[in-house]
Each structure stands twice: as structure tokens, then as C-alpha cells.
Write a structure and sequence with these properties.
It is built from ten helices and three strands; from the N terminus they run βββαααααααααα. It is mainly alpha-helical. It has two domains: 3-98, Winged helix-like DNA-binding domain superfamily/Winged helix DNA-binding domain (Arc Repressor Mutant, subunit A), CATH 1.10.10.10; 104-191, no CATH class. It has a three-stranded antiparallel sheet with strand order 1-2-3. β2 (12-17) and β3 form a beta hairpin. The protein is elongated, with a radius of gyration of 26 Å.
């Protein structure tokens, strides 16, 4: 197959074989390709070029995500897999790890502290959130244990944010109960802080 190229949008190079458009790649990736206009090229060579370009795009996407906020390894891989194939996504994550941009232990510790300080989540809810983000159970346990969480303080923080007092209407207290249960606290704990005019049961 004869390879020909045309300048595309945003600095990309459009590749054609025997006059048929195949795909576009960045100029950087194209210039790493050992074929030029008029050369005979194989499907295998084109597939390798496409794989290289996909890996580069996945890496750029990973860097953008890590610029916005820290990610754990599995979380970032799962995010990349929504747009890229498994090989490109894994390659991007591996490059980020080698560059020291991914540290699951630090990610778990920072996220656990944020969930406690900002949302007053219980240890159980924080652990669940971490595991949902791809943090393994042992690392999640260590991150939560390091916080030395005061459960009562967490409950009080939520009630204060919601401006719930003993004089608040039962419907507002019921809303607070739902919020506290969602944050991972037990109903027995909640009952110690909220007195309803009608029974909570």
C-alpha cells in the first residue's frame, strides 16, 4: 500500500493508503514513523503507529487528570479505559507511576482526611469511598486508622452545618438523620444527639 499524507487540523497529520483515509496522528508521533509519502507501508506498521499514537493520547489525558487532582492507580486506569483500549491506558498509568505522579498511599491518606474534615464522614463511609476509588482494603484501613476519628465530633459537625438544634422541627431532624446515616453513622449514635417530639422509631 502506498502511504500519502496531508496536513490536518490542530497540527495533526492525516494518513492515507492508496488514496483512502486511515487515521490522523500528531506530527510528533508521525515523525517517529520510519515511512514517508510514496513509501510502501504494511497494515502491521500502520497498526503499530496507531498504537503509539493512542498511548501518547492516553498519557496526555492522564496528565490532565492528575493536574486537576490526585488519582489512585486503579481509579486513573478505570477513567482512561472509558476512552482508550486496555494497552494504551495501562501504558499511560505505568508512565505516570515511573514519573512519581501516582502514589496510592498518599492518595488514600489525602482523600481520607478530606472526607473527614470536609464531609465529616464516619470511618466506615471513608473506607468504602476509598475502596470504590480503587484503593486496596489494607491501604484504606491504614489511611482511616491514621486519622484517629472522633465519631461524636463528626456527628456534631454535620448537625452544626445543617443548623440543627433541640428546637428544630422534627422534619428537619429527620433530614439530619438521613444525612448522618448516609455519612456512615449508626442510628444508635444519632439518637444520642437528636430528641424528637415524636418517636424516631
Amino acid at each position: 500500500m502506498e502511504l500519502t499524507t496531508k496536513q490536518g487540523k490542530n497540527g495533526k497529520i492525516n494518513l492515507f493508503t492508496d488514496g483512502e483515509f486511515r487515521f490522523a496522528v500528531s506530527a510528533f508521533v508521525y515523525h517517529s514513523f520510519p515511512y514517508r509519502d510514496g513509501d510502501e507501508v504494511t497494515e502491521e506498521a500502520l497498526a503499530e503507529l496507531k498504537k503509539t499514537y493512542d498511548a501518547e493520547k492516553a498519557h496526555e489525558s492522564a496528565l490532565r487528570s492528575l493536574t486537576v487532582r490526585a488519582h489512585g492507580e486503579k481509579e486513573l486506569l478505570r477513567k482512561l479505559r472509558q476512552k482508550y483500549d486496555a494497552e494504551a491506558a495501562q501504558s499511560a498509568v505505568d508512565r505516570c507511576k515511573q514519573a512519581g505522579l501516582i502514589n496510592d498511599a498518599a492518595f488514600a491518606a489525602d482523600l481520607a482526611e478530606e472526607l473527614y474534615r470536609r464531609k465529616a464522614f464516619s470511618p466506615e463511609r471513608i473506607r468504602r469511598e476509598l475502596e470504590q476509588r480503587g484503593v486496596d482494603k489494607k491501604m484504606a484501613d491504614e489511611a482511616v486508622f491514621a486519622l484517629d476519628i472522633d465519631r461524636d465530633s463528626g456527628i456534631i459537625q454535620i448537625l452544626e452545618k445543617m443548623r440543627i438544634t433541640d428546637d428544630s422541627p422534627d422534619k428537619d431532624k429527620a433530614r439530619a438523620v438521613r444525612r448522618l446515616l448516609n455519612a456512615g453513622y449508626h442510628i444508635s449514635e444519632v439518637k444520642r444527639f437528636l430528641i424528637f417530639n415524636n418517636s424516631l422509631d
